[in-house]
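In the design runs reported in the main text, the only information available to the sequence generator was the tokenized backbone. The following block is the verbatim input for one such run; it is reproduced so that readers can re-run the procedure and compare outputs position by position.
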């Protein structure tokens, strides 16, 4: 648990709050999963299976991979930390903005995280269409990869918080380049099953032992309270090291039973994907009509920008501290030396001469209306004014749009 530390993530614990800050399946947990969890309560006087054998077999069938490729954890976050810890201090590279736990896990293992920061395109509000080229790695990404020579490359696909889906061609090229450098590739596919994605990197597992794929029941089956994630990798030595540093009995009997039931819910996943696609289009259109700028998304969440206050985000090339300072992609700076020309924490200029973005908190205004959204200002490469919302059922999505529409922009200035 967090001990006297602010929670940097989304997720509202109060049932009275409509939670758009956590991107879980809008259908809610399947009834079969809930029933399986209830039935497993009869076994709480016994220790859970430390090997999670039945769960592993179920995942193998669900994913179409050998059981020996699978390692389970107490949520995807535990797997991220055991993955980094099993390899010791490393120099890692991630495509930012992205999920913060990769950096935190690398930091705790004594390693260093560098960012390749994708830039915002010239997003246009008001036409109901999200820009397709926003937050996309540029042509110099592979030059950067060759120059930095990281030991690990972290990729989130679809990316959190941008919703960007990487193509099969891009991922394969990363794997080829990383293999030549002797680097590992960590691909987070926790949101893939609810996305527009029609393929998975798991088809590369056998050919590339340096590939590790992260998956989770949390988002796909709307069961974050049970904490259950898993990793896929053909490098059994790596999986053994991860297992050695993970406490035994880390997956409860209740979580194992719920996970087994979840893997049988194929129609549920199909229905959820259809709902997400329809509601994503609705939300992008409505957000745009309200004057917000939306980043293109192929996932079950949307990143948007409060352009009504004329704030601008900024993106660097390669940085090593939350996007505040940039590093030149030259040998003189890739070791972590700050580029002093970038100055301190940069705040974008206000075109209207009004208050700065730090004076504005759309999240707080919505929370007063019983709605929680994710403030994305703490993501590397983003600034105040960026927010992420989960895609929920139509009734909740309408409530969000109505709440946003009822906020007078004058109170935000």
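Verbatim output:
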């Amino acid at each position: 648990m967090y001990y006297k530390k602010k929670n940097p993530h989304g997720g509202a614990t109060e049932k009275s709050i409509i939670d758009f800050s956590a991107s879980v399946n809008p259908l809610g947990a399947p009834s079969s999963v809930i029933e399986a969890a209830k039935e497993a309560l009869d076994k709480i006087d016994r220790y859970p299976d430390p090997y999670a054998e039945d769960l592993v077999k179920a995942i193998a069938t669900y994913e179409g991979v050998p059981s020996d490729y699978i390692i389970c954890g107490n949520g995807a976050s535990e797997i991220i930390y055991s993955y980094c810890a099993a390899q010791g201090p490393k120099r890692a590279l991630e495509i930012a903005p992205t999920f913060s736990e990769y950096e935190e896990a690398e930091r705790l293992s004594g390693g260093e995280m560098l960012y390749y920061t994708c830039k915002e395109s010239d997003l246009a509000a008001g036409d109901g269409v999200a820009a397709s080229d926003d937050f996309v790695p540029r042509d110099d990404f592979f030059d950067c990869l060759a120059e930095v020579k990281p030991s690990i490359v972290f990729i989130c696909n679809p990316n959190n918080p941008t919703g960007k889906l990487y193509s099969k061609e891009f991922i394969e090229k990363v794997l080829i380049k990383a293999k030549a450098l002797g680097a590992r590739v960590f691909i987070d596919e926790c949101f893939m099953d609810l996305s527009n994605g029609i393929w998975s990197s798991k088809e590369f597992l056998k050919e590339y032992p340096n590939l590790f794929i992260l998956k989770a029941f949390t988002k796909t089956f709307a069961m974050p309270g049970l904490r259950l994630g898993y990793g896929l990798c053909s490098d059994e030595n790596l999986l053994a090291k991860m297992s050695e540093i993970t406490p035994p009995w880390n997956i409860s009997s209740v979580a194992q039973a719920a996970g087994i039931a979840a893997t049988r819910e194929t129609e549920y996943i199909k229905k959820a994907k259809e709902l997400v696609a329809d509601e994503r289009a609705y939300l992008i259109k409505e957000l745009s009509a309200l004057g917000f700028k939306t980043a293109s998304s192929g996932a079950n969440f949307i990143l948007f920008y409060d352009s009504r206050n004329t704030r601008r985000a900024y993106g660097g090339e390669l940085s090593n501290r939350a996007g505040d300072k940039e590093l030149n992609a030259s040998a003189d700076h890739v070791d972590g030396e700050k580029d002093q020309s970038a100055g301190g924490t940069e705040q974008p200029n206000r075109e209207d001469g009004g208050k700065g973005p730090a004076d504005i908190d759309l999240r707080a205004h919505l929370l007063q209306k019983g709605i929680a959204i994710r403030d994305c200002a703490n993501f590397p490469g983003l600034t105040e004014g960026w927010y992420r919302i989960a895609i929920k059922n139509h009734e909740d999505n309408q409530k969000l749009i109505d709440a946003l529409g009822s906020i007078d922009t004058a109170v935000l200035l």
